[in-house]
Amino acid sequence: PTEASAGADQFLCDSTNIYLYGNTPINGTGSWSRIVGPAGGTFVPDSLTPVTKYTGAIPGNTYAFRWTITQGGCSNADEIRIDNAGNPSPCNAGPDRDVCGSSTTMVASTPIFGIGTWTQITGPAATIVSPNLPTSEITGLVTGTTYQFVWTVENGACDACDDTVTFVTYPN
């Protein structure tokens, strides 16, 4: 049979449709199969068409598909990996507020999909104790100063979301 080629790996965001691009066999017939990922999807128009669509994909999952070309008792296959990231959750860095003293605890929303990261954008240098924790402690704040920190959530091929929190520090 013709040597199978399933195409390049794909990085998608929040997609329910995955487009597959197998090569057209010169010798033999081809067939797609899902080998990794949640069950329940369908090949449209069918699994025997080299260029086809897999509908019913679930965002937030990794899929692998195999394109197999068979002729007589011989076959060969190629596989493709699809990372179908889920859109990051709406970002919420918490309310703007006043802070007493030289430390505070952040109150961002926990992402359902993706990883959040705290970044300081204004104010004298402070320490973000756990940059990927929504409730990270911030230490080394200078009293009488306005600070801004941004909570950014990223997930694969999806657009990142971010939200900024502002606070003013006061002495105890």
Q: Can you lay out the helices and strands and say which pair or pack?
A:
Layout: E1 10-13, E2 17-21, E3 29-36, E4 42-44, E5 51-55, E6 61-71, E7 74-85, E8 97-100, E9 103-105, E10 115-122, E11 127-128, E12 137-139, E13 146-154, E14 161-170
Parallel strand pairs: 1-7, 8-14
Antiparallel strand pairs: 2-5, 3-6, 4-5, 6-7, 9-12, 10-13, 11-12, 13-14
Keywords:
172 residues, mainly beta, four-stranded mixed beta sheet
- Overall spatial form: rod-shaped
The biggest beta sheet reads: 4 strands, mixed
Number of helices: 0
**Proportion of residues in β-strands:** over 45%
Distance between the termini: 78 Å
Q: SSE order in H/E notation?
A: EEEEEEEEEEEEEE
Segments where pLDDT lies below 50 for 5+ residues?
A: none
Mean pLDDT: 96
What does this structure look like?
By secondary structure, the protein is mostly beta strands. Helix content is 0%, strand content 51%. It is built from no helices and 14 strands. It has strands at residues 10-13, 17-21, 29-36, 42-44, 51-55, 61-71, 74-85, 97-100, 103-105, 115-122, 127-128, 137-139, 146-154, 161-170. The strands form four sheets. Strands 1-7-6-3 form a four-stranded mixed β-sheet, with no helix packed on it. The protein is rod-shaped.
In short:
The chain has about 170 residues and is mostly beta strands.
